[in-house]
């Protein structure tokens, strides 16, 4: 199990705290220091079952500067979104847990963390 975190994020700290309380074995990826490649983002999106625009932090300054709110959200524009996430990792919603069964969850709640643990 791996969790993508921003240590400054309270949701990330809560998720790792819950993983620790449950005695889970996991690795931490500080995705702002070690940004995922476009290939890794595609793989995580497939595991999440989501499109890139569904995991974008639209209120971030970078999102506003790029005008993401107005970008098309159709499959033919998927690569453009993934490229933006790879170049601006701060835009990635967090935390993301990749579970041992090959799935992944955006773990912003205790329930989502427990869901990842049950897989």
UniProtKB/TrEMBL annotation:
Q: Which family does it belong to?
A: Belongs to the ArsC family.
Keyword flag Membrane: no
Q: Which UniProt keywords apply?
A: Oxidoreductase
- Quote the protein name from its UniProt record: Arsenate reductase
**Keyword Oxidoreductase part of the UniProt annotation:** yes
PROSITE patterns from the UniProt entry? ARSC
- A GO MF term: arsenate reductase (glutaredoxin) activity
The source's domain of life comes to Bacteria
- Cite the InterPro entries for this sequence: Arsenate_reductase, Arsenate_reductase-like, Thioredoxin-like_sf
């Amino acid at each position: 199990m791996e969790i993508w975190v921003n240590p400054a994020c309270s949701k990330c700290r809560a998720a790792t705290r819950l993983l620790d309380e449950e005695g889970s074995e996991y690795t931490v990826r500080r995705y702002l220091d070690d940004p995922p490649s476009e290939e890794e983002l595609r793989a995580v999106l497939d595991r999440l079952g989501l499109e890139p625009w569904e995991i974008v932090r639209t209120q971030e300054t970078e999102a506003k500067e790029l005008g993401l709110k107005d970008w098309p959200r159709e499959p033919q524009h998927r690569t453009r979104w993934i490229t933006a996430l790879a170049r601006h990792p701060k835009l990635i919603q967090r935390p993301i847990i990749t579970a041992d069964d090959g799935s992944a969850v955006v773990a912003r709640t205790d329930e989502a963390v427990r869901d990842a643990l049950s897989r």
